[in-house]
Design a protein that fits this description.
Bound molecules: pyridoxal-5'-phosphate
Structural class: alpha/beta
CATH class of the largest domain: Alpha Beta
Largest sheet: 7 strands, mixed
Strand order of the largest sheet: 2-10-9-8-5-3-4
CATH architecture of the largest domain: 3-Layer(aba) Sandwich
CATH topology of the largest domain: Aspartate Aminotransferase, domain 2
Strand content: 15-25%
Distance between the termini: 34 Å
Radius of gyration: 21 Å
Oligomer: single chain
Number of domains: 2
Order of helices and strands: EHHEHEHEHEEEHEEEHHHHEHEEEHH
Number of helices: 13
Amino acid sequence: MLKKFLLAPGPTPVPPEALTAMAMPIIHHRSPDFLPILEEAKNSLKWLFQTENDVLILCSTGTGGMVGSVTNFMSPGDKALVVRGGKFGERWTEICTAYGVEAINIDVEWGYAVKPALIEKALKKDPSIKAVMIQASETSTAVMHDTEAIGKIVKKYPGTLFIVDAITALGVIDLPVDKWGVDVCVTGSQKALMLPPGLAFVSVSEKAWKFNETAKCNKFYFNFKKERANLAKNQTNFTSASSLIVGLNTVLRMMKAEGLENIFKRHARLADATRAAMKALGLKLYAKESPSTALTAVEVPAGIDGGALTKLMRDKYGVTVAGGQAQLKGKIFRIAHLGYFDTFDMIVGVSCVEMALKEMGYTKIKLGKGVAAAEEILMKF
Ligand SMILES: *Cc1c(COP(=O)(O)O)cnc(C)c1O
C-alpha cells in the first residue's frame, strides 16, 4: 500500500465534509431545491471576497474566469497593461492576444515582484490603457505582487480597470477586494477553496460593469451580463455545476467557522515553517522577494535531477509536489500550503524532501533538520 499525499498548488486536497456533501443525489438546477443553495453560495462568496459586488459563479477552471475577465470588459484594439513575471502572467498576454486586445507587457524577472512604480509610469505615459492585469500570487514562481499598492495607483485612472488573478491568493492572504480597488477578481475552486476543479469565481465592480456596456470582444459561454441577471434569480446562465456548488457551501461554512483572520494566520504559519525548513536544509528559495503564502518554490540543488526528485517523492513516498514550469522545469520544486492544509501536512512534505534528497545521494542533507526547523515555527500558534 502507498498512502498518498497531495501537496501541489492545485488541485489541492478536499476535506471529507465536502466530499460527502458532494455525494448527495443530483438536484435539478432550476428546481426550488437548488435556489437556496445558490443563494447561500452567492452570499458566502461576497464574504470571502470582502466585497459588496456580485461574485459570478462559472462552470470552468480558473482560466475560464480569466478569459471572461478579458472579453467582458475589453474590445479588440484596446490596450491592457500586463505584469508578466511567470507562466500565469504570460497567460494574461495570451488571452488578450487571442481576443485582439493589445497586451503591453511589463516583463518582470522570474522570482521577483513587479515594482508598482512601473505601473504608475506606464499609465501616466498612456492613460488610454483600459486595464491593468496582474497575479496576486504568481504560482509558477511563488512570488506575490503588491495588489494593494497597484490598486491605489489604478484607482486614480477612471478609464482603467484593475483585473487580478487571485487564484492562489484569495482565501490565503488578506485581499479585501473593495477596499483595495480590485475591479475584477478571479479565483478557482481547486486551490484555496479546497474543492475539485470545475468552478471559477469572478467579482465585478460597478466601474467594471460600465466597461461591460461597451465591450465588444467576442463572447458566448462567458457572458457576465447574462450571468449577473441569472445570479439575481439564484441561477446560473447554463446548467449549474450543482454538486460542486453544494460542496462550495460546505467549505465556505468551514471557512466562516474558522474566520478570515485565522485562515490568513494559518497559511502564514505554514508558509513560514516550510521556508524555514528548506533553509535549514541548506536549500535556496526560488522567490528572491515577496514569497507567496500559498506555496514555496525551492531550487533543486546542483547535481540533482529535479524531475527525478519529484518523481521519487511521488512514486516511492506517495507525496505529490509540483515541479517547475517552462524554463524552470527540473530546476525547482513547489510545495503547496494553501487550502485544506495544517501542521502535519507540512511535516510530511518537509520530511519527504529530506528522505528523497538523501536517497538521491545529496550528502549535505541531515535527516530531521528541516523537520525540526518547521516544528519550531509550527508550535507557535
Ligand atoms: C491554477 C492557476 C490558474 C488557473 O489554472 P486552471 O488550470 O485554469 O484552473 C491561473 N492562475 C494562477 C495564478 C493559478 O495558480
